[in-house]
Amino acid sequence: MTTFLGIDHPLVLVRDLASTADRYAALGFAPRPLGKHPWGTCMRLVQFDGCSIELMSVYDETLIDQHAVDGFSFGRYIRDQLDEREGISLLALNSSDGDGDAAQVTARGIRCTGTIDFGRDVRLEDGAIDRTKTTLKILQDPLLPRLSNFIVHQHRPDLIFRPEWRIHPNGAVGIHQVTIMAEESDWPLVRRRLAGLYGEKEIFQHVSGFGVRTGNGKFVVMSKAAVEASYAALPEALAKERRPSCVAIHVSVSELEPVRRFVDAAGALYKSDDAQIGISDAASYGNVFLTFARDPRL
How far apart are CA 29 and CA 41, in angstroms? Predict the structure, then answer.
């Protein structure tokens, strides 16, 4: 099992950040207060142990080209993809050695577009202000825009992953799978991308396609038909999507019953068995199928 570049946080782009965060909260998550990036995007983090779901929108389009590197503007990239549709855009991969890990994937054929260094103010519980320090290594793939990544190296993890910020009433503790929807004709391209990130030896066969092991969780690749069979009917925006895209997040929980109480109270549509609870209405959660299952590590 690799310990390399685990799933850190999918960026779920939404047009109405406040309402979407409320719907996540109704499922028993505890989104953090609003945060802002220097390139005009804003977010609400659903934090776990070493990973998170980042609900993201745009708050100031006049800033979208700030901190651009080598022709890549993070803010513009997010704005343009959100203009197309809501859903998972870039997906961050965690690292404690951004330069070294970028060099490894570059050696396997993954292009590193550039480096972005930034920080943002964080208000602590006592009211004091401290500042994060983050390095991003952009791994943009023009052939797979919604499967592009960035390596994220948090130099001040104590300001990002505080224990009290990752307590959720539904018992969520992490992410153990992200599902990629791709037609079979695109599987060779997607496989090359995943093998470039993690090495061919981490690729495995799956009943619905194939996948790759990461340092935190796995990616599983399925066709559209398999996605609908596994989760539910695709919302209109995903049904129209022709490019490989991340469409589902599997959240680890200690027990399923607390989740069931929240989804019932929220009136959310779902299907369940003894092993998992899957929310059927992806459109209400940023075109993401949320599936809750017991933490494989427990």
Answer: 22
3-state secondary structure of 98: helix
Domain 168-294: which topology? 2,3-Dihydroxybiphenyl 1,2-Dioxygenase; domain 1 (3.10.180)
The domain ranges of the chain are: 7-165, 168-294
What pLDDT is stored for residue 263 in this prediction? Answer: 98
**pLDDT for res 235:** 97
DSSP 160: T
d(CA 238, CA 247): 8
Q: Are 144 and 188 in contact (CB under 8 A)?
A: no
Run of H or E residues at 226: helix 224-230
**CA gap 211, 159 in Å, rounded:** 32
Do 46 and 28 contact (CB within 8 A), yes or no? no
Fold annotation for 7-165: 2,3-Dihydroxybiphenyl 1,2-Dioxygenase; domain 1 (3.10.180)
- Give average pLDDT by consecutive 10-residue segment, the chain, 298 residues: 87 98 98 92 94 97 90 93 97 94 96 88 85 92 96 89 91 97 98 97 96 97 98 97 98 96 97 95 98 78
Determine contact, residues 137/23, Cβ cutoff 8 Å: no
Lookup result for tokens 């607390």: 258
CA pair distance 219, 131, nearest whole angstrom: 32
The b/e string for 102-118 (b: 16+ C-beta within 10 A; e otherwise) is beebeeeebebbebbee
